[in-house]
Specification:
Strand order of the largest sheet: 1-2-8-5-3
Order of helices and strands: HHEEHEHHEHHHHHHHEEEEHHHEEEE
Helix content: 40-55%
Largest sheet: 5 strands, mixed
Shape: globular
Radius of gyration: 21 Å
Number of helices: 15
Number of strands: 12
Low-confidence stretches: 5-11
């Protein structure tokens, strides 16, 4: 995902524990401050940041506690990112989405799209995913440099989104473009970029409204637009709620899988002994998928807002205060994953305990599909004895929400 805003400049004083700073992610140096936070202040108040004051929740246990108490820690009150909605601003507009709703409305809308991600649907989609993955891999140049992000990760995930939405194939890269604008929270720092973002979101909404209109009066089909249209919970959504849910599904389906696919290439190259174990024993692939998702954590945080005064890990949280739940840090918590949590270990016995998909009622509805796509990629690479060799450091997203890659120069060879 491309970051479209420049980092905030000339900040008067930098709080070393303000882990929302975009340069930490652009330069891949977020690990040390989070390690110190987990050890000394796992629930820490940041008084000033580019996103205003917030509570930073950085270790595994309190994040699970917050996620398990959705009536106390609301997704709806302030949204799901550390960036705040700007009231009465011409450059901002509320776009409700079910991940940013509380019960009971959240439950009904989530149930509407959940059938697209059931085990039986994964079986139905698996042959298609494998065929498309094979086609992309077979088109790659051997022993020649190319960008893994654009050629493999973006292409595969954008194809999958086009199928899920029954989206015109020739326009599928629009989904990547809209996802990049929707997920970039750095732009809240400038009015000009807020307006630009809103323009692109309205373009997205108008395009999808056309697809909705084409399906009116037609029998149900197994795509997300038809599922929304034929459900009690979502059939009567207004335009902004429709747009909000589209953005959720586009960003969720695009960025999570896309950045984990890139992490598979980059991370396994970074830990060659683990890559060799995986190459020697493809039976480790399904556990390795969980480990790669844990190690990458493609969405660095989710935000909750306290609905009442409460206490978390001895810290007094006031009603209305926001909490950033740093999944990216919890997934490196040594008390859960061991002293080697910063490394990829392909047979890590508890890799599946990662929080990259969240926890509780808001756990990612598309988690199975992401896992299937990444596993299929690794399986098809193994069939071809394909090894990805990283030729230089990646260009990373400069933001604290989507934890991802813009470019990764690689070449492939056989092992």
């Amino acid at each position: 995902m491309a970051t479209l805003a420049e980092p905030a400049m000339h900040r008067v004083a930098i709080d070393p524990f303000d882990v929302s700073r975009p340069e930490l992610y652009a330069e891949d140096r977020w690990q040390a401050p989070f390690r110190q936070l987990r050890e000394t202040s796992p629930v820490h108040h940041v008084a000033e940041s580019g996103f205003g004051p917030y509570w930073s929740v950085s270790s595994y246990k309190p994040i699970v506690e917050v996620e398990s108490l959705p009536d106390i820690y609301s997704s709806q009150a302030g949204g799901i990112t550390i960036a705040d909605f700007v009231e009465n601003s011409p450059s901002d507009a509320r776009m409700p989405m079910f991940i940013a709703m509380d019960r009971p409305k959240h439950s009904g809308q989530r149930r509407t799209v959940a059938p697209a991600f059931t085990p039986s649907e994964m079986v139905r989609l698996s042959d298609n995913i494998r065929t498309r993955t094979a086609e992309v891999l077979d088109a790659l140049p051997w022993n020649k440099e190319f960008d893994w992000v654009d050629t493999v990760s973006i292409e595969l995930t954008t194809q999958m989104l086009a199928i899920l939405f029954d989206f015109p194939w020739e326009d599928r890269r629009k989904l990547t473009f809209w996802s990049d604008w929707a997920g970039d929270i750095e732009m809240i720092k400038t009015e000009e970029l807020r307006l630009e973002r809103l323009k692109h979101m309205y373009e997205c909404g108008a395009y999808f409204q056309g697809l909705w209109n084409q399906k009116l009066g037609k029998p149900p089909t197994p795509d997300l637009i038809s599922m929304m249209m034929h459900s009690d919970a979502m059939a009567e959504m207004d335009q902004m709620e429709f747009l909000g849910n589209l953005i959720l599904l586009i960003v969720g389906g695009n960025d999570t899988t896309r950045n984990s696919m890139t992490a598979a290439a980059y991370g396994l190259d970074k830990f060659p002994a683990q890559r060799a174990r995986l190459e020697a024993d493809p039976a480790l692939i399904h556990n390795a998928v969980q480990e790669i998702i844990r190690w990458q954590t493609p969405l660095a945080h989710m935000r909750r807002t306290a609905t009442q005064d409460t206490v978390l890990e001895g810290q007094e949280i006031k009603a209305g205060e926001k909490l950033a739940l740093w999944y990216i840090s919890a997934n490196r918590d040594a008390s859960v994953f061991g002293d080697d949590a910063d490394e990829i270990v392909v047979d890590r016995p508890n890799a599946r305990r990662h929080l990259a998909f969240g926890h509780g009622i808001h756990r990612c509805v598309g988690a199975r599909l992401a896992e299937l796509q990444i596993a299929t990629l690794l399986e098809e690479m193994a069939k071809r004895r394909m090894r990805v060799n990283v030729l230089g450091e990646p260009e990373r997203v400069a933001a604290c929400f989507v934890h991802g890659y813009r470019k990764l120069p690689v070449e492939i060879s056989r092992y």
